[in-house]
Specification:
Radius of gyration: 23 Å
CATH architecture: 3-Layer(bba) Sandwich
Shape: globular
Number of helices: 13
Structural class: alpha/beta
CATH class: Alpha Beta
Number of domains: 1
CATH superfamily: FAD/NAD(P)-binding domain
Mean pLDDT: 91
Helix content: 10-25%
Amino acid sequence: MRWKRKGASTMARDRRTVRFDTRKDVDFVIIGSGASGGVLAKELATAGFDVVVLEQGPYRTAGDFSHDEMKVIFQREMMRHPLWSDPQTFRHSAGEKARVADSGPPSALYARGVGGSSVHFTANYWRMRPVDFRERSQLGEISGTGFADWPISYEELEPYYTRVDWEIGVSGAPGPFDPPRSKPYPVPPLPVKSSGVLLEKGANKVGLHAQPAPMAILSQPHNNRPACVHCGFCMGFGCEANAKSSTLAAMIPLAEATGRCEIRPLSTVFRIDTNDAGRVSQVAYVDAQGRQQAQKAKAVIVAANGGETPRLLLMSESSRHPDGLANGSGLVGKYLMANGHSLVHAVFDQPLNEHKSVQVTRIVHDFYDNDPQRGFYGGGGIDARAFIQGSPVMFAENGLPPDAPRWGKAHKDLLRNDFTRRMSLLASTTSLALESNNITLDPELKDRIGRPAMRMTYHDHADDLAMMAFLQDRAVDIAEAAGARKVWREPIVPETVLAHLLGTCRMGDDPAASVVDRYHRAHDVPNLFICDGSSLVTSGRGQPTMTIQALAFRAAEHIAGFARRGEI
């Protein structure tokens, strides 16, 4: 079928007032409004298509956000659906009984709400490098892994990285280890804070190179959004100033302003239906009032994240798709990657006041590339920041060194004095693709609307753990060289941090070895597209959001072209 661009008259509809009939086909239903879904919504609505975005969380605006630690962090306001409980289960291997993982690590961490996790993220915006896309060809096979090349190159994706810089809003300056770029950053780096100064000082002393951190937080006004006010509530919190470049701030308003995009919050999708021809026909969901609904569509784009996307596809089995939708390869949910991390904490004699301003202003990328001399695969970067959850309550609970007194005057003195003298060094690393690491449906546990719980099976590869330890050692070197009076390591505990859910519906040219093609179209279903962290073939070095958004800009361009040419 051939779709035509809507006429200019439709622009007369008021922002956020367009409502589409569930019984009539819209051009696209997008499931999820996060890093990729928000971009896709803006791009396709701007291109003239009618778009419905189904988002399981609420629609919050800047005025809804607060600095209430108890509400945001401890009550997990951003992390859990406000209407339905959403339990998860976790196991280390297929032979192990999965346990409920709803209340803490290991569990999959992501926000529920319009804008998704881009609302509460730290906003590190590293690009991948050319090597990330072709490591399999350069390094060869890594035994026991699904190590593979991407079907696209960095050079092909670079223009879309640049669009992320300029349209989303990224502050930065090129560093010595950055990949080639076609255009400078739109605004300069954020002002360096104490942790950045100390990282640079320590790095210089041990022969390393600190550079400005690219951050999706505005250092200057850009695209009708204000500059950062340096309140210090970035990680885990929504931005009250709209300076953080979430899709909620940067993309969703533009999508809605077209009069062609309807955002439906509190819409929990439980199935994608297909017709007798095997094409997607509608998306079934539970609305804010708890009623079952179904939105008809000419095409569907799943952008629900690397955990929820395979979960939904597996829930959408049928006689034509008995193993789940788009799962002819049997790879939906497999090759889960989560990026490795390790932490070092340091206390200095002088106040640092790291609780103010953004989390990160300097990074070290000397160890980004794989080095065979290490004896294991991997690479990554080191940043310096406030205590990893830099708010006072979190510091009081988890911020003191292991040998610190836990009560009495000495305890209170440490809380009082060290809070402003602390910083952390976070190492972010690669995560190898293992077929045994996966997302499946729990056979026993269900949520309150009857959906099978997400079951995660995950076990860190030995090389990933080795890379975490290697970078942790380098972080200790930096902290000591910077003059810290006390340094200690956070224990590297496998399988605890699953904040980046990647690789579970990987891209590829071979339908037998991938779920979607190079344009994010499902090999098995011509009018189904999948574009989020699940599409990644390799994990990169720890900060995937910018790559996810670059892929979304690229996918939207191709999907719009397919629709105009009648190729969907």
